[in-house]
Amino acid sequence: MARMTRGTRRAGSALDPVPASGVSADDGGLEAAPSAPSADGPEPDLPPLQRIQSLPSWLIGRVAARGRGLVAEALAEQGVKMMHHAVLAAVAELGPIAQADLGRRLAIDPKDLVGILNDLQADGLTVREPDPRDRRKNAVTVTPAGRDLVERCAAAAETANAQLLAPLAPAEARRLMALLARLHEA
């Protein structure tokens, strides 16, 4: 499977969030910035860009993008793309599963799923065979090599997530996870 590559990110971009330290580097100089966003929302007297960057939606989005990048990088080291890993993990958990059911469960367009399954099967990670319950459908099953890759990818993703949360104390990380779960369930 082709390895994913990440583009380089320009340091000090105007769209980077303001650090919690309250100072932001801007072409070598320092400018004052809010120390932390308020739970009530951004301060109304902030400049427009700083106001946007102090919104919870902005910060959550930037952290999510960093997390996805770390996980994508870790999975690429295993030779797999994120969607391929998601499909492979679903097949390992749910399989044998009808190809159409798999697409519905993961909300993947059928044409995209066929391409992903073609890649996984070519790499010897899954097998598609006629579904014994309905021979008009294909059932997808994970191979032993696929199960091994799912385990390696799970470990790599856990390491990447630990890297994401590394700036936090363990109690802070647990609290953040609890708060994110509440927001997700709302």
TrEMBL record:
Pfam families: MarR_2. Residues 1-50 are annotated as: Disordered. Residues 53-185 form the HTH marR-type domain. Signal peptide: none annotated. It comes from the Bacteria. This is HTH marR-type domain-containing protein. It comes from Streptomyces violascens.
